Amino acid sequence: MRFSYLAILLISLAFVLADAAAVENVEKISRAQKTIIQKRSQTYSGKATWFIPSKEGGSAGACGPNEADDAPIVALNHPQYGSMSAKSSWCGKKILITNGKKSVTATINDACPECAHGDLDLTPVLFEKLGDLNTGILQIKWHLL
């Protein structure tokens, strides 16, 4: 009887330790993914302006790919883009931009050296979906998709 009690106790202890190790691993994974999750769920606020890639900065964006004037792309502000001499981790990311009840999906393909944190420089095709080009500046919110 004493042997079976001891065996059950040892087996139970092994399960408890295995469970604790699994929980610790989940916490480590969660911490590693936390930054990505926060980045994706964060909404940024700023101003939207517009630019014509072929006339302002050239047809090759800071992220590398050529930019057509009618492409649904944006130039990300310098503070968030990071080093202007390197390709940003933001390059190629899809975002949803809103202005009131209007929204549009775009891809980050360039950098805007003059833009403040949260600001985006949009191609005319995107800007027109959110407001009038003659306005020149719109208040926007945006987040990663």
From TrEMBL:
Segment forming the signal sequence: 1-18
Keywords: Signal
InterPro entries: Expansin_CellWall, RlpA-like_DPBB, RlpA-like_sf
SUPFAM superfamilies in the cross-refs: Barwin-like endoglucanases
Keyword Signal (UniProt): yes
Pfam name, any one: DPBB_1
Domain RlpA-like protein double-psi beta-barrel: 46-141
Protein name from the UniProt record: RlpA-like protein double-psi beta-barrel domain-containing protein
Species assigned in the record: Phycomyces blakesleeanus
